[in-house]
Amino acid sequence: MARPAIGSSSLTRRGLLVASASSLFLTACGSGDSEVQSGPTRGPQDLVIGANLELTGAGAAMGVLQERALRITVDTLNEEGIQVGNARRKIRLVVQDNGSDPKKAAEQAAELVEREQANAIIGGTIAETSMEIIKVAQQGQLPFISLAAADELVVPLTQRDFIYKLTPDATDVARQLARLISSQKLRKVTLLAAPGLHGNSGVRAVTQSLKTSGVQLAKTLRLPATGADLGSIADRTVSSKADAVVVWATAPTSGATARALRDAGYQGPIFFDAGAVAEETLSDQNADAVEGAFVVHPMALSGSSLTNTTSAGLARRDFVFRYIQAHGSFSGFAPYASDAVQLIAAAARLANSVDRGRIRVYLARQVTEGIAGSYAFAPIRHGGMEPDSLGVFTVSRGEWTRIS
Q1: Residue ranges of the Leucine-binding protein domain (predicted)?
Q2: What is the CATH number of the domain that holds 133?
C-alpha cells in the first residue's frame, strides 16, 4: 500500500503509533559553550557517545555540518545532564575523523567499542563508511545510528538489530520526485546515480516510482567517484534528449554534476534527492547551475518551523538560533546528528541505564519529532525518517524555497 502524499489528511502510520506511544524526545533548552570532550578518561556518570564522521575527504561537505549539529546538542544537554536512573549523567562525546575512508572508519569504530567503552556510536554520512562501522558495531553489540542514505544499512534486520538509520528511505523520496515530475508534464527522464550503496538504492526506487507514475526512464547512468571528470556523463545525458534529469548523489557530487550538465548545454529541470543538500550546494560556483533545481528533503530545510509553538517546533527554533549564533547562518541542512544524540539520550533515560543492550531496546520503541523530522522506530523497523517529514523545495534566488 502506498504511503500518503505530503499534505494528505489521511492518518499516517506514524500517527497511529503516536496514538499509542508518547513522544520520548528530550526538548533542547538553554545554551552552553563547553568543548566536546575526547580521550579515554571516563567519568563514572558519563554517557559515552562516539562520533565517527567524515570531517575531511569526499564526505566532508556533509560530515562537518553534522559535527556542528552534534556539538550544539551535546552542549545543550550537558547544561543540566540527563537523568538516568538515580544519577544525572553528562555526555562525553568522542569525535573521530574517518577521512571518508571505510577502512579507517572500521578501525576507529573498534577503538570506540574496546578502548573508549562507548555506549553508542553516531556517524557515517557516507554509506560505505557506515557499512564498515555497522560490521564492528553489530559484532560488538553497540548501538549505532547511521547518518548515511542507503536502505541496505538497516536490512536484513536479523543482521542489523543494533543498527538504526535516520535519513529518508529511498522509496519515499523517489515517490515524491516521480509525482513532481509527472505533475510538470515531463515524460522522459535520465537518472544520474552515484556509485555505491546510495546510488543503488536510488536506481531501484526511481525506476519503480517513475514506472508507477507513467514516466519513461530514458537512460540510467552511474556517476564516477567524487572529484572525477563529469564531462562525458553530461554529454551522454544531453544526447539522451530527456525532458528532465534526476541527480541521485550527495554533496559535493550533486553540485558538480549540475555544473557539468549546464556546461554541456542541458537547459532542462534538475531534480535532486535529499542527500544533495549541504552548504556547498548553494555555493557561488554552483549558484547558476542549481538555480531552479528541485529537491525532496526533510522540512527542516524550511524556516516555517520557526513559527511552530509545539515542543518540537520550539526545539527546532532553539537549535537554529544556537546554530546561527555559533556559525553566522543556518543553511537548512538536515541535522540528523542532533536527532541521533537526542534519541540515544532519551533511550538511556527510559532504560534507566547506559547499558548498550538496554539502549538498543529503547531505541527500537521511540516515536518522536526531531529537529530534522519525525521517526517511528519499532522492533521490526530501524529506519528511516517518516515520509510526512518530507517536502518539495526549489532553488530560488540562491535559496531553498518550499513549494509543497
Answers
A1: 49-376
A2: 3.40.50.2300
Q: How far is CA 160 from CA 128, 146, 212, 339, in A?
A: 15, 12, 30, 20
Q: How many Cβ atoms sit within 10 Å of the Cβ of residue 166?
A: 27
Task: Let me know whether 124 and 239 are in one domain.
Answer: no
Residue 86's contacts (CB-CB under 8 Å, 6 or more residues apart) are none
CB 38 within 8 A of CB 360: no
C-alpha span between 97 and 53 (Å, rounded) = 5
Preceding peptide of 252 cis, ω within 30°: yes
> Please, are residues 145 and 121 in contact by the beta-carbon 8 Å criterion?
yes
At 102-138, the pLDDT tens digits run 999 999 999 999 999 999 999 999 999 999 999 999 9
Give the integer Cα–Cα distance in Å for 382 and 157.
8
Name the phi and psi angles at 26, rounded to 5: -90, 120
139-159 pLDDT tens trace: 999 999 999 999 999 999 999
Residue with cell 540562491: 398
Q: Could you tell me the three cell numbers for 49?
A: 557517545
In a domain? residue 5: no
113 and 190, same domain (yes or no): no
pTM: 0.87
Judged by DSSP in three states, 169 sits in coil
In the chain, count of helices (H) and strands (E)? Answer: 12, 16
Count the neighbouring beta carbons within 10 Å of the beta carbon of residue 148. 28
Rounded Cα gap, residues 69 and 53, in angstroms = 12
The answer to whether residues 101 and 59 touch, using CB atoms and an 8 Å cutoff, is: no
In a domain, 71, yes or no: yes
Residue 22, pLDDT > 50, answer no
Q: What's the rounded Cα separation, in Å, for the pair 247 and 135? A: 29
Please give the backbone phi and psi of residue 385, each rounded to the nearest 5 degrees, phi first: -65, 150
Domain count, the chain: 2
